[in-house]
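Extended Data, panel c. Modelled sequence:
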Amino acid sequence: MPAPARILDLFAGPGGWTQGLAALGHRDIGLETDPAACATRAAAGHTTVRADVAAHPTAPLAGKVAGLIASPPCQTWSAAGRRAGSDDLPLCLQALDDLAAGRDTRTALRTACTDPRSLLVAEPLRYALDLRPGWIALEEVPAAAPVFAHTARHLAAVGYATWTGVLNAADYGVPQTRRRAFLLASTLAPVAPPQPTHAKNPGPETLFGSAPAPWVSMADALGWGATDRPAPTVTAGGGRSGGPEPFPTQARNALKQAQQRGAWALRNGGNRPDGADSVRITVAEAAALQTFPPGYPFQGTKTKQFEQAGNAVPPRLAAAVLRTLVPAADRVGVAA
């Protein structure tokens, strides 16, 4: 009897997608190479294979994958990084074209890249073409949207219905205006983005239905009363190689200062993060802003814990996206 099909999560990180799946009653198997993230997943009870996604063979997984999830590392595409991905875009598109044509030129193209990590955005197509899962969900920073559009064209050519676009996490109950590119694909049913559940200006209810809920504020998410602290925005710094871009901000100088300190801070209006009105946030508060459940067991150094929380897909956004895909698999009896 064949083994039941599974949901495979590439570049699984600490478990943002995994927690979103859990909210829908499903589990995944994560591929992740970072030891701190693997330790976090183990502490949270998530199944993980410590492996380099780019080097991992797909043949042993044939016939065993019902759904594919992937959030390739964003450092080379992120505004908080060096954006080498933009320089490497032609090589990334070439890698996609070659994989679709049955040629694996990743090794040669990787050596030609300004940053070899740029080419990791081609890995989801390699797994998709080799494993042909029933549905696919990919996420990246908006700068990588052209790669997703190119990937979608190759998936459509082999029978997938696809949708690509940018979603704002705040529209799904996440206390951040965090914009991310997504690619959704399925051979089981038509695909479409999830309907927003929240809005900046919800408006009144109408005869056609209830108005969406208002955006969730950071103060509400952290349990701060109106008199506790001023309404904050979040600034964040990355590592030397570009690092995470946990929460969007226009304060470029603040980002650089936060990077030097290796810390995150809440910034009130135009005040600097190290000003009198600045408030450092804890890992637990950063996790709450990402909608991880209370007490989520991030492992590693404090810097590693912040990086994991910041780089993860917010579980609440993940659940909203996956809700449009996973039920379709259920309807045709595919085990998750």
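The radius of gyration is 20 Å. This feature is highlighted in the accompanying rendering.
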